[in-house]
Design a protein that fits this description.
80 residues; 70% helix
Length: 80
Amino acid sequence: MSEVFCPDNLVAEIRKESKTLNLPENSINSIIAKVLESVLSWLENREIITNNDLERVVSCELDKYSKDLAFLYRHRNKII
């Protein structure tokens, strides 16, 4: 089964995990903008990616700005 990458879904997932950490709204917006820019740049030369590829890249980018947020994103939808 294939699906099309939707930036809005990624933004919603990051925002949800950010709110769990009670990050300030301006910090959330800044992190989202930087991560989204990097992910979109990474996607430019790729026709096909897996969910694992996307999660790995997003996690690495989030790790630059918040290790806790990166951890939550990596383990979302899992009981921790």
